[in-house]
Amino acid sequence: MSRLPGPPAYLAGLRLEGRRVVVVGAGTVAQRRLPALLDAGADVLVVAPEATPAVEGMATGGELRWARRAYAPGDLEGAWYALAATELAEVNEAVAADAEALRVFCVRCDDASQASAWTPASGRHDGLSVAVLAGGDPRRAAGVRDRIVEGLHDGSLAARKERPSGVLPGVALVGGGPGDPDLITVRGRRLLAEADVVIADRLGPRALLGELPPHVEVVDAAKIPYGRAMAQEAINDAMISHAKAGRFVVRLKGGDNYVFGRGFEEALACAEAGVPCQVVPGITSAISVPAIAGIPVTHRGVAHEFAVVSGHVAPEDPRSLVDWAALARLRGTLVLLMAVERLGPITAALEAHGRAASTPVAVIQEGTMATQRVLRTTLSSAAADVVAEGIRPPAIVVVGDVVSLAGE
User: Fold this and answer.
1) Is residue 342 within 8 Å of 351, Cβ to Cβ?
2) Which of 249, 155, 246 lies closest to 200 in space, CA to CA?
3) Contacts from 100-107 at CB under 8 Å and sequence distance 24+?
4) Is 161 a catalytic site residue?
5) CA-closest candidate to residue 154, choices 211, 108, 193
6) Collapsed DSSP state (helix, strand, coil) of residue 67
7) Which helix (H) or strand (E) holds 149?
8) Spatial CA neighbour of 70 closest among 97, 40, 90
9) Choice among 223, 244, 256, 323 that is catalytic
10) pTM above 0.70, yes or no
């Protein structure tokens, strides 16, 4: 479509709450335009002898008034805004002419070149209204609108809010997913784009850190100076001190922050310090990494259960809270996190308590990343094979018959 003649339109936001708007026509075009007018609080009068079921429902529901007749001179008296949306060019022309005489801005839906106002392609996100005009090319306008709104939703387009003075911006505990930056949640990415400070674990989606604006302070949690026993306390202190200084803090972790991620400890620390805290769950690596490698943790007729187990301490360690004997008796799938370095004692414990030595095992290193490696073995051979193949953390270990399904 060619560009409409004349200078570009002047963009303005109309505040229509309680103000009369007249829509002439009640077909599909009017049906698309009415919701935005009603959302704006306009006092809407629809003039049309017939209406679509949706428009009729708006009228019977009391959302608007419907004059069930043809348009007549005088219908625009007292109007602030008008839409000519009938299928008859002569009616739309008459509405536009009356609007011009009354100095009422009018959208003519059949011929934009003869209208005093144009309806932009519009969208909303988190208090923002986006409106796009493309000089008479509605498809282009809608395409640009969609790109902007999509960017606002997923955080790839930053739109920082002005924060009220005296109000702590707080902390967001964001689970970043298994590593691939495309697998962070939409909400997590949006909050990351609004951050002043990001305290990141090494297993978080590192590629997203490179997209942050230069003013954002990125704190590598692995490099915060502390003694080994004080690691979590130091991270908590960093979150709270930045938040109390008026900065919005995103604590970015790999996987889900509540699955062996100590996220709840961080939430409690914020609550005790009086710092607002929100939790954004992440896609846990326990399920997503096997899935990307072609292994379902459950499958009809094969596994009706799965258990996610921390292997950060060996079975014989007095700190272990895991009932390895009970796990060995399960017929379903075991997903072991943080278990590569203690895989020998773990597999030995499972075998000792009855799990078959021939049970299929998969070890997936750096799952979802370009560097992903998958080792397929058995329970009795897993520990030795991991050493022989040079498998190193981070890696997920899957134990169970579902491992064999990927080869079918």
Assistant:
1) no
2) 249
3) 102/76, 102/77, 104/76, 104/79, 104/80, 105/80, 105/81, 106/81, 106/82, 107/33, 107/82, 107/83
4) no
5) 193
6) strand
7) helix 138-154
8) 90
9) 223
10) no
> What does the block give as tokens for 218?
């990125």
Neighbouring C-beta atoms of residue 345, cutoff 10 Å: 18
CA distance 188 to 227: 30
**CA 319, CA 313: separation in Å to the nearest integer?**
7
**CA separation for the pair 203, 336 (Å, rounded):** 16
Annotated catalytic residue 317: no
* Residues 197/247, Cβ–Cβ less than 8 Å: yes
In the set 75, 180, 196, 201, the catalytic residue is 201
CA distance 397 to 14: 59
Label residue 223 exposed, middle or buried (CB < 10 Å: 0-12, 13-18, 19+): exposed
Report how far residue 387's alpha carbon sits from residue 299's, in angstroms, rounded to the nearest whole number: 30
* Chain segment 21-44, per-residue pLDDT in tens: 999 999 999 998 999 999 999 999
Q: How far is the C-alpha of 235 from the C-alpha of 255, rounded, in Å?
A: 18
Across 244-370, where does the E strand assignment appear?
249-253, 277-280, 306-310, 333-337, 360-365
Q: Tens digit of pLDDT for each residue in 313-358?
A: 999 999 999 999 999 999 999 999 999 999 999 999 999 999 999 9
Question: Residue 321: which residues within 8 A CB-CB, separation 6 or more?
Answer: none
Is 165 in a helix, a strand, or coil? coil
